[in-house]
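ugh ok fine here u go
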Amino acid sequence: MQQEPAKIKIGVLYGGRSGEHDVSLCSAASAVLALNTEKYEIIAIGIDRDGKWYVQDKPDIVPHKDFGKVLSLKKRGMWLVNHFEQENKLSLYNLESNGEKVTVDIVFPVLHGTFCEDGTLQGLLELAMVPYVGADVIGSAVGMDKDVAKRLLHEAGIPVVPSLTVNRQQWQNNQQSIMETP
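structure:
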């Protein structure tokens, strides 16, 4: 009898410290529903608003009044993230249990905003040599900085809409003149 190949373990990483935490829970529900469970073992890894990681018992999609449905994030255990044990894999240990360990082959980040899709997480995963889905560090960082992205697109000959970039100090010192700028 021929044995079926082991499923690839995908760690769906969602939530996060950004202001877009709840949007990420909704996006993660969509990602989990779209993944082929015959080919992949889905491991939901939620990050709470304080930045703590929690492996979920199973991906649990629940109704939500604003988003329709979201991937639930339950704070269970105290998880240590480790990338040294097995080459190119991410291991997580529950310090509050007797040896509970979860290992993923690839990370699928479904996070939004600062500390999530700005290159920060991608840099962490690259430093740890853990494969992940999506844009790399520079692509993520440029995509988050709209001023830099527009300047790069313009330099490449790609049309962009006119815009004005204002930093906090400029706004505090010149609100009226900035608002009058055509």
